[in-house]
Input
Amino acid sequence: MDTILEFKNVSFSYDDDGNKAVSNLSFTIKKGEFVAVLGHNGSGKSTLAKLSNAILIPDEGQVLAMGIDTADETRTLEIRQHIGMVFQNPDNQIVATIVEEDVAFGPENLGVPPEEIRIRVDKALKAVGMYDFRDHEPHKLSGGQKQRVAIAGIIAMQPDCIVLDEATAMLDPNGRKEVIKTIKYLHEEYGITVVFITHYMDEAALADRIIVMNDGEILFDDHPLEVFHHGKELREVGLDVPQATEFAIALNMKRKVLTTEDALEGLIGILEKGSSEG
Ligand code: ADP
Ligand code: MG
Output
């Protein structure tokens, strides 16, 4: 299946006061994509995440996960196996007292045979770089390590897509880096489709595509550089373009500039060639 997720004119309200948490969302996520969903607090990111694997069901419109309508209650488990979710708080996701038992929990619930679980758990822990911690107690790990164990638990269910809902928001800078590195590795080495929800612009910049949410609606859905060209609109909704990108746009650089290093290389290029080829 080439299409992992499809939202068709999806709206959802938590209550019946007429305030929609998300309204009229339409987008498609294809196999192998790395998509960031960016937006300030309350813009509807978590609602979008929960709609993607049948934690929430649309009031209007339709969500298809691997072609399955999430409103079909008989197939909820199947959908959750295809679309795995990692949440913000690492402590709320720990279910066992030993790391490898924690990772085994998901596949056990799916009825995977024990010998197959053993293989999957070891493989998942190696993939997130936590194999050496397999017999440790999860609650004693750092935040970044706990999130990597949570990611291993999802990977062990062999999903097609992993949705991370601000999975780095509670981590220190080191933990954030660990988790991002892990996700990029899983995407590049295993081809897993990633939906990376964040309010950090620099993290969103790592994706191939950014969906910007504002007030429950999609404001932009485009390549990071295209999105960052809309500095004024982004600032109006409380988001900031990375400084390096703004600098590059001001100098009309042609290269992709998302970090200070990129901007510096571009600037050197301009100075050397006396052009804007940077
Ligand atoms: P984000 O994840 O971007 O912060 P949410 O999807 O959590 O945004 O929230 C979107 C809107 O829905 C906000 O107005 C928020 O107050 C509201 N909302 C979120 N969760 C609930 C809930 N459980 N009950 C009522 N309203 C909610
Ligand atoms: Mg949220």
About this structure: The two ends are 40 Å apart (CA to CA). The chain has a mean pLDDT of 92.
